[in-house]
Structures are given as C-alpha cells and as structure tokens.
Amino acid sequence: MTSTTAPRTIPLVDLSQFEQGDKTQRQAFINQLGEAFHDIGFVGVTGHGISKDLIDDFYVAAKKFFALPVETKRKYEVAGAAGQRGYTSFGKEHAKQSQVADLKEFFQIGQELNDTSDSAYQKNPHVEEVPAFMDLGMQLYRAFEASGNSLLRAIALYLGLDEQYFGEQTSDGMSILRAIHYPPITQEPKSAIRAEQHEDINLITLLVGASAGGLELQNAAGEWQEIVPENDEIVINVGDMLQRLTNNYLRSTTHRVVNPPRSEWDKPRLSIPFFLHPRPDMKLDVLPSTVTAERPQAYAPITAGEYLDERLREIGLKK
C-alpha cells in the first residue's frame, strides 16, 4: 500500500546552513528565508537546534497544568498583566475583528530579568502543582529566543541592514512563550472556531508542532491552505511589527486554527507558539529602504510598546 503525502504549502529551510554553513550556504539561506517571508509570510525551519526532548517534556507539563481544576488554574491569573503573564481562562481572547471568543485557554511565560525594578517585566507565577512547568518553560523560552534571534539576523541581512540590527532591539525583549489548550468541543460552537483568523502582533512567531492539526494560512488568492509540519520542523511566520517595519514588503499573513471534524471533537489540541517581541522602546518607523513609488509609506511612526498596547486592547486582553 503506497502512502501519499499532502503537498507542502510553505517552503522548508535549514537554519544550520546559516549558523554553520560557508558563505554560499549562508547567502542561499538568507535568500530563501527572505523570499518566503516576502511571498508567503510563512516558512518551515529545520536545523534549529531546539531539543525535541525539551519540547516533549514541556508538552507533558503543560498538559498536567491544563488538566488542573479551573479554580486552581485561576490562581495563576495575574491581575493587571493583560494576559502577558500567567493563565488566561477560556473564552477571554478574540480576534480583533470578532466579538466571539476563541475556543481556548492559555498560559503565558514572559521575559525574566535579573533587575526586577522595571514594571514592564512582571515576574512569572510559579505553578506549585506542576513544579516542572515553569522550569521547562523558561528553558524552552531561551531556546526559542536564540533560534528566533538567528532568524532575525538572516532577515536583517536580507533587508540590507547590519546583521545585529534586531539583536540590539530584542535583547531583553518582551517575547512571550504561550502554551495554548483547546479543550474538547462538547457542543455546537456559536460560530466560534478554535482560533479565528488573525495576524500576529510581534516581529516573528515560532511554533512547534501542535498535538493536532487545524492550522491554516490564507494565501494571496484568499484560499485557506492547511499547514502540516513534519518531524522536528518549526513553523515561522511574520508578525505585524515586522510587516510594519518593512512597509508591507514582508507579509504578516492571516491564519487561523479551525475546528476538527465532528468525529474528533473529543480530542483536545495543545500548541506552543513563541512570539518574539522587541523591547518596548523599539521604533517601528518604516525602513526608508522599503519605501518606493509603487509602495509608498503605509504607516505612521510608533514604538513597539505603544503598538502592543493598542493591539492588546483590540483583542480583549487589556481594558
């Protein structure tokens, strides 16, 4: 019996070519990554160096956390954090154009600094019931941060910038590791899906394979295409901050997580995205090199912190 594999909807690149390759391999990677972000806004990445055991162990710890009683999980909702630290209960977040809440709950782990005097960097709550959850989460956070910064070095070179352009802005950045739990669907949803169509806020998002399918991107023709990661592949997509900075040259592509077939409603879904953010004071002013006669300047100057604040209000996490 022969098996058929679905055709890929996003290109696949190998980050080790950039990190360990010769000059030709590095340039090939830079071109492939940049073209994927320009044409599609999504790319699959192998050779990223993030330990599969670490990912697997964090999945196990996250499952244990989400299996706790609701009243226990709510102990870890952090007042005034706008969902940027700790637990956010089911039905709170929605896409900016929708008033119907997504079918999910999540836990967010944010940047931790040795200097705790900056109020923008609240401490992450430690989950007493699952001690490994935060320890593994911070290890995974650092691994994602390293790989994400490598990808941004390649993008900087693709854009003709200094290789460290983003590194200077993302050191101690406001990145978020989010563990998302989509519970089993127990009744006909009121027009809601697991995650309504949206674009991400940040510079780039790194997503390790989810425990179930459902991720789709909207292509240039307006068609929805399923993304099916393979093996140890991480899915990377452009966020609105990078799109804004590059005057729409790099694409923040609309995507969603659809509900499974009714026969699989009893299956929960767990996914782990890492939203790579710069420091709040980074200027998202359009890069002059990306402004052309065909693509006039599309955005007014704003800082990353101001933009994040605006978007958190739009999606219902900040009042």
From TrEMBL:
Pathway: Alkene biosynthesis; ethylene biosynthesis via 2-oxoglutarate. It catalyses: 2-oxoglutarate + O2 + 2 H(+) = ethene + 3 CO2 + H2O; L-arginine + 2-oxoglutarate + O2 = guanidine + L-glutamate 5-semialdehyde + succinate + CO2. The keyword ATP-binding does not apply. Residues 170-278 form the Fe2OG dioxygenase domain. It comes from the Bacteria. GO terms for molecular function: dioxygenase activity. InterPro entries: DIOX_N, IPNS-like_FE2OG_OXY, IPNS-like_sf, Iron_ascorbate_oxido_reductase, Oxoglu/Fe-dep_dioxygenase_dom. Pfam families: 2OG-FeII_Oxy, DIOX_N. Keywords: Dioxygenase, Ethylene biosynthesis, Iron, Metal-binding, Oxidoreductase. The keyword Oxidoreductase applies. Its EC number is 1.13.12.19, 1.14.20.7. Belongs to the iron/ascorbate-dependent oxidoreductase family. PANTHER family: 2-OXOGLUTARATE (2OG) AND FE(II)-DEPENDENT OXYGENASE SUPERFAMILY PROTEIN-RELATED. This is 2-oxoglutarate-dependent ethylene/succinate-forming enzyme. It comes from Neolewinella maritima.
